[in-house]
Fold:
Amino acid sequence: MALVDKLKTLLGLKLKYAASAGIATAADYAVFFSLTTYLNSTPVQAQPPAYAVGVLINFLIAKRYVFDLNRSAWSAFRWSVLISLGGLTISTGLIYCFDHYVPFLEDKTLLSKILTSGIVFFYNFYLKRLVFEGKLI
Structure:
């Protein structure tokens, strides 16, 4: 396959994954802001349960519509959860750092959450593609 074809395929997968991630992120944000607004959770407390909701939704959509599953669904789910735990660690750490060490972002929770989501998107895409299809690039 020519390089251009490979790049087109990769771009198509990223777009499908972005749509999947967009739906999952909307659910994540809904839970996150519900917890911080109505239950007075701190952003760091709200991040894990919100992220977990997004992970489950993203797995279900990615399994069905984005990636070719080249292993058992159970195996893919286990690996996906492990990768998502890494993503949770990264995103919670970033939220904490933005909230505590970046004065500009201390009171801008939405901006912190958006920046964090953008960074973790690439981590998730490449590692989950590896889990589902056995391909990193």
In short: Helices lie at 3-38, 43-66, 73-101, 109-133. The CA atoms of residues 99 and 107 lie 7 Å apart.
